[in-house]
Each structure stands twice: as structure tokens, then as C-alpha cells.
Design brief:
6-stranded antiparallel sheet
């Protein structure tokens, strides 16, 4: 994500100010898309800037004018009293119809067990010889923070809980207040929890943290969409849309797009510009793509990490000539989406917290994506209770969500790159030891290892936490002894 796009947070120099803090103790060329807003000005913008504006611009962004509130259940669901999947789905339909709520998160639906699994993973992987410090990005209503702190209070050594601190990094001031209320329900948590209101990708807001060990939590708090989305489409049931009304993390981070005319042509970065045509009405503007040679530093770093040019660099002349001829006879345009927003976030986090341990969770794939390209997003609009998907990201008018699958293989490479171990085009010859130890697990494997799956099992053995989240994964990354 380009630094010029991060306009949501206040940018203060490190020694001239601090981010706003809430403390518990002191609580305070595709077919042109026709567009009627000002997301694209007179100058072309990179695709990541277009996506950021379509989602987060304070005046016309998708998340800026949505009014759906964060759902909170009064009590935990008693799964052992439900007969099976059909009874569970009926129960969900009931709680959605009884509450004027946009969505319930998996942390909420499976509380406290979902948060307990994460807390157990922290206990097993953290260095408990020093005070535990947890940062959470995208904390929603605070249910996860409270669940983790509850678990640590009950199961960790007393010295670990008593000396711990938990900081939620939240861009939404309304969600910050809700988190304070949720966690503050337990009096002993009050002195250990606070919310910092700033953009997680703003490196100036993190301050002097590099000297300390931290545990960082990043996940999509509304990944309940993973199965509810598919179920709603198959059964045509009208339920509230489970989308987050704040800054989501991995899947809603802006991406860039690169394009190649055929199999042998070089990659070009894609820009979005206004298309001025005389037949258009004065109030409607067409958007189109503009292709330029790779020049943006963030895009170039991401291309190097993926190593997209390796085939061209390693092929012999004969193979290259044959490939060139084939591309002329049977041309096939290529499009590739790059998670540059995620790369920027990881660069900031590794710069501020080089010794962090990281747990992230998000979609590993999305169903029914109509937009072309590797790692392409789902662009969806909901109107009158039904969802409709777009075939072009340019159709986003501030009324559409744009979310991407997470390429966990690429996430690992970016993690290594940002840690300083993986050097693009040189990693194979590097003799330096890895600075991160990484494992990726699907949600069911993660919860079976760290959670209490028996607590979310129905009478007939159906377990929604294990059976329905097939397209989500957990990513665990911890520092090795090579970190100084």
C-alpha cells in the first residue's frame, strides 16, 4: 500500500507526537466501468490506490458509509444441545433475524472456544521468560481479546498473566470503544489492556518497540463468510451479510495488478484512468486500464519475491525462441494480482517488531470469482438482501466489497523477505540461517491441535468449527535464534 494512500491515520513524527490511545484505566483492458464519484481524479492511479479509495475513502469508501454494527451474542451457543447441521443453521437464521446486526464473527459464534485455541497457541510458542506483550490488528468487538485474556488468567502461570499487556491496534474509534467495554467487563484485565487508534501500516505510529519481544495477532474477524457465503447461495436463505465495518486486514488490503500481453511479453503495471468519450453524459465517467513498464518500487519488490521472471531468465535461446513463436501463434494475455498492501504491512511490522511472533488467519481461496487473474478478488455488492458479484473490479463504486484470497505460500516468502533472510534472486545461495520458523495449518487442524473441538460438536458429531471453514487457514511465524 502506498504511503500516500494511508490518509485514515494521523501521521506524526516519532518524537513529536503519539497515536491516539484508549486506556482502560483512563477510558476515553476490461470493459470500461462507468463511475459517478471522484475515486479517480484527473491523473491515473495505481490499482492499489483505486482499491484503497473504493474501500476506505472517508467520503465514498465502502467501509466508510456502512452502518452495520458488530454483532455480540449475549451468551455462548450450546452446541451440545443442537442435533446437527440443520439445527445449527436454523439457530443461526434465528439469531440473525432477532438481531439488527450485519454479521457475527467466528470469535463471537464460537466464544470462548475460538479465542481459547489462539491463547493456547500463544502459550506454546511464546517466550514466557519475559513479560508477554500481545498486539492484535483488527480486534472487532473485543471478544477475542477478552477470551485470550480470560484463558491466560485461568491457565497461564500467575506471573505471566500479571505481567502481560494486550494492545489492540484499531483504526475505528467506535470499535475501539466497544473493545474497551468488552474487555473491561473483567476487572483484573483493566490494567493490562489498551487500544491504540492508528493504521497498522503507518510505521511512525509504532514507536520504539524493536527492543522488545511481542506477539502479533492478525486475522479476518469476519471469516464466517467462508461457509455462510456458499450456504446462502445454495439455499437462497436471506441472512445478514457478515462483513466488517472497519479496516479488515489481509483480504481487504489493497493489491496491485500486473499485465502481460502474451506468454513472452514483459509484465506491465496496471493503472486506472478516466476515459473521456464524447458520447458519455456529463455526469458519468468511464474508467479504463493503462499499462506502464514496471517502475513502482513496491510492485517491483513483490515481483522479485514471487520470482515471476525466473522462467525467462533461466531458459535457453532455443526455448525462448519457441516460446516467442508460440505466443504469437496462440497469444494468451496474463494477469497477476500482487499483495503489495500486505508486503507494505509486513515491512512496517518487521521494522517495528523484528522479534515478533505472528499468528494470522484468513481465506485461502474464494468461490465463484469472476474476475480474471491469479489471486483475483471477489467484488460483491449486496442489495435488498441478495448478493451480486461483478466481473470487473472497476465496477466498485463505493457500494461493493473487494476482498482477496491469501496466498499463504507467498505470505511465507514475504515474511522471510521482510525479516532480511530471503533476498530476492539470491535466496538459494544464502548461507545465513532463517530468521523465522513458519507453519501453515487449515482451521480444523489448528483447532484440533490448540483448541477444544469437543466444545463445538453437536449431538450427531457435526462440528461447524471443524467442518465448515474449509477455505480458511492459520499462519504461525516465530523468530529463531538467528534474530539478534
Amino acid at each position: 500500500m502506498a504511503s500516500r494512500t494511508l490518509t485514515c491515520s494521523k501521521r506524526f513524527a516519532l518524537y513529536f507526537g503519539k497515536p491516539k490511545v484508549f486506556s482502560c484505566e483512563s477510558f476515553t483492458p476490461l470493459i470500461p466501468a462507468f463511475f459517478s464519484t471522484h475515486i479517480v481524479g484527473d491523473r491515473p492511479v495505481l490499482v492499489r490506490d483505486f482499491i484503497w479509495s473504493a474501500l476506505y475513502d472517508p467520503n465514498h469508501g465502502y467501509f466508510s458509509h456502512r452502518s452495520g454494527s458488530v454483532g455480540m451474542l449475549e451468551e455462548s451457543i450450546k452446541f451440545n444441545r443442537l442435533q446437527g447441521r440443520k439445527a445449527y443453521m436454523k439457530y443461526l437464521e434465528g439469531i440473525y433475524s432477532q438481531n439488527d446486526i450485519a454479521w457475527f464473527t467466528p470469535v463471537e459464534l464460537f466464544k470462548p472456544w475460538y479465542a481459547y485455541g489462539i491463547a493456547e497457541a500463544i502459550l506454546r510458542t511464546a517466550d514466557l521468560s519475559v513479560p508477554l506483550k500481545i498486539y492484535e490488528i483488527g480486534g472487532g468487538s473485543g471478544t477475542c481479546a477478552k477470551g485470550i485474556m480470560d484463558y491466560l488468567m485461568l491457565n497461564a502461570p500467575a506471573r505471566v498473566y500479571n505481567s502481560m499487556s494486550y494492545i489492540s491496534v484499531e483504526i475505528s474509534s467506535s470499535l475501539a470503544k466497544k473493545q474497551m467495554e468488552t474487555v473491561g467487563a473483567v476487572r483484573s484485565h483493566l490494567s493490562k489492556f489498551r487500544v491504540e487508534c492508528h493504521d497498522a501500516a503507518d510505521k511512525n505510529a509504532w514507536g520504539m518497540l524493536a527492543l522488545f519481544l511481542h506477539f502479533l495477532l492478525i486475522w479476518r474477524d469476519s471469516c464466517y463468510l467462508s461457509y455462510k457465503y456458499i450456504w446462502e447461495r445454495k439455499q437462497n436463505l436471506c441472512m445478514k451479510e457478515p462483513k466488517e465495518n472497519s479496516y479488515s486486514v489481509l483480504d481487504n488490503l489493497p493489491h496491485d495488478l500486473i499485465y502481460s500481453e502474451n506468454q513472452a511479453s514483459p509484465w506491465m503495471e496496471v493503472w486506472v484512468e478516466k476515459q473521456h468519450n464524447s458520447f458519455l453524459s456529463i455526469n458519468r465517467v468511464a474508467l479504463s486500464e493503462l499499462y506502464k513498464p514496471l517502475q513502482d518500487p513496491l510492485i517491483k519488490r513483490c515481483v522479485e519475491i514471487i520470482d515471476l521472471e525466473k522462467d525467462h531468465n533461466t531458459q535457453g535461446r532455443a526455448i525462448s525462441a519457441a516460446r516467442h513463436i508460440w505466443s504469437k501463434v496462440f497469444p494468451k494475455p496474463r494477469r497477476c494480482w500482487l499483495p503489495t498492501g500486505c508486503l507494505k504491512l509486513l515491512e512496517v511490522l518487521h521494522g517495528a517488531l523484528p522479534k515478533m511472533s505472528l499468528i494470522a488467519s484468513d481465506f485461502s481461496y474464494l468461490p465463484d470469482v469472476r474476475i480474471p487473474g491469479e489471486r483475483a478478488p471477489l467484488v460483491s455488492t449486496k442489495k435488498d438482501g441478495s448478493s451480486s458479484d461483478h466481473s470487473s473490479y472497476l465496477d466498485a463504486k463505493g457500494d461493493a466489497d473487494i476482498f482477496f484470497p491469501t496466498d499463504f505460500w507467498l505470505l511465507e516468502r514475504m515474511d522471510h523477505f521482510c525479516s532480511g533472510w530471503l533476498k530476492a534472486c539470491e535466496y538459494k545461495s544464502s548461507k545465513q540461517g532463517r530468521k523465522r520458523r513458519i507453519i501453515t495449518l487449515d482451521t480444523s487442524s489448528f483447532m484440533e491441535e490448540f483448541g477444544l473441538p469437543s466444545k463445538t460438536r453437536t449431538k450427531d458429531g457435526y462440528n461447524p468449527l471443524l467442518d465448515d471453514f474449509k477455505n480458511t487457514k492459520f499462519y504461525l511465524s516465530v523468530p529463531t535464534h538467528n534474530i539478534k
